[in-house]
Specification:
It contains four helices and two strands, in the order αααββα. By secondary structure, the protein is α+β, with helices and mostly antiparallel strands.
Length: 152
């Protein structure tokens, strides 16, 4: 075994420039791989957190008619029963009722498919969900039935 190590070391120090270039290339490649792996992990974590905070949360209760992702028609007949069950469970921090639908936003030259989410602003704030920043207009208010927030 020591003969093998002696031959390997002799070969490494025979051409120091080649050894240095090879070590630099390996270190750069390894550093790049580690950076990209962590970058992708961070992007995936951020995407998951964004979806959980805006659309699904940690748990989503949907009607049986919507188990098929292509069927968007359906509603929960008596949502208060489900909310009462959730309130009684000590592991549940809180719950918020939302209405989620798909829609089409049409402009003068183009249209775009979109999610439409209806919610109670005060219940969302009580859960610790901060409202999105508003560039123009005002935040949604309780008791105002015709308010909306539109993204870019």
């Amino acid at each position: 075994m020591s003969v093998l190590i002696t031959i390997a070391l002799r070969n490494l120090f025979r051409n120091r420039r080649r050894t240095l270039i090879t070590i630099t290339a390996i270190a750069f490649s390894l550093g790049t791989l580690i950076f990209l792996r962590n970058f992708m992990y961070g992007a995936q974590t951020q995407m998951t957190n964004n979806i959980k905070s805006t659309l699904t949360s940690d748990l989503q209760v949907i009607p049986k008619s919507q188990e098929n992702i292509y069927n968007v028609n359906g509603s929960i007949e008596n949502p208060q029963v489900i909310r009462n069950v959730l309130k009684k469970n000590p592991r549940v921090k809180g719950s918020v009722a939302e209405i989620v639908a798909t829609g089409l936003v049409a402009g003068e030259t183009e249209s775009m498919a979109t999610f439409i989410v209806g919610y109670h602003p005060e219940e969302e704030r009580a859960m610790g969900n901060t409202p999105p920043p508003i560039v123009q207009g005002q935040q949604l208010q309780n008791g105002v039935a015709d308010g909306m927030i539109m993204g870019e």
